[in-house]
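It is worth pausing here to work through a concrete case rather than discussing structure prediction in the abstract. The textbook approach is simple: state the sequence, then state the predicted structure, then interpret. We follow exactly that order.
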Amino acid sequence: MWKAQEDITAEVLTALAHPNRIRILECLRKDVRCNCELSPALDLEQSNLSRHLKLLVQAGILFSWKEELRVNFKVADQRVYRILDLAKALVKRGIEKRAEALSETA
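Step two, the predicted structure:
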């Protein structure tokens, strides 16, 4: 059974909708990383990290491969960073608007 494009889009956005998964993607922005490097870099327990990595792989955002004992991760499509950057810009704009509204009422 094929999924509708909207369902797949929702899965991708859901996979992105967690602070730890955003931090993982930021860690992978410049280079391939092994899960053994990600865990200390993000200060996450290995089991917690593995759960987040699995979700990102299942959503097609990351892909992984094994080299001996190492499991490496890479972003499947760099366009995911456009989504993250746009989300950050929206957040920044929202904060600025709230700050303006507060200063006007003070």
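Step three, interpretation. The domain at 5-77 is CATH 1.10.10.10 (Arc Repressor Mutant, subunit A). Helices lie at 5-16, 19-27, 35-42, 46-58, 80-105.
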